[in-house]
Design a protein that fits this description.
This protein is α/β, with parallel strands linked by helices. The protein is 22% helix and 29% strand.
Length: 254
Amino acid sequence: MVITLYQQDILWAQPEANRQRVEAALAEAKCNIFVVPETFTTGFGDHMSALAEPQEGATLQWAQRMAAQHNLLFVGTWIVQESGRCYNRLHWVYPDGTYDHYDKAHTFRVSGEADQISRGTERVVFEYKGWRIKPAVCYDLRFPKWLRNSGRSEELRTMNYDLLLVCANWPASRREAWNTLLKARAIENLCYVIGCNRSGTDGYGGEYSGDSAIVDYKGFPLHEATGEQCITATLDKKKLDIFRQHWPFYLDFD
């Protein structure tokens, strides 16, 4: 599996310009999955709900065109308004135009996100090209129980995903936590972890160092980003399966 992350310098509250920026990055990509940061069309802030789109709005239609044109799975979050509520919704859009989503479960109360964005309640795992993928959004990364790689309570000795995929707007002031938690989630869940963060400066003057990374199941970064750039890595499912067979730590999960 070849995966590309775009560590985007998001333009504040400019959805069309941000889509154009991503489209330019996609033109150079050669991958199976292309990932952009959390709220890649708007940036993360108080303005998000005002810029919320209907589910079948401009960004979804654009993402469907991009996925079809480049024959890849497109992954990213944008704010969706549905039934009178707003959600920070992570979408994965298939090349044939079909899609599904995960709503961010842990809205960031410190920033006020929880006051305007409704929490998701469903744990989700989806499959693509033989990989089981667990989506998560930014603040979710701090909650290991929510991301635990196991089945239902009566099936604790199983593994239900191979790749944890996190889209984020994680500021430079807390970069050490970001870098540490990506590795911790990989080690404890015996899985690859993808962390796609933004770079640059937001509309409040907040700085983002990016630190997007592709981390293997041992906690070693395969690739790390600096500045606004794309990074690409090939993930090896066979090596992951061999590692799990040799070190079946999941048999002793609590």
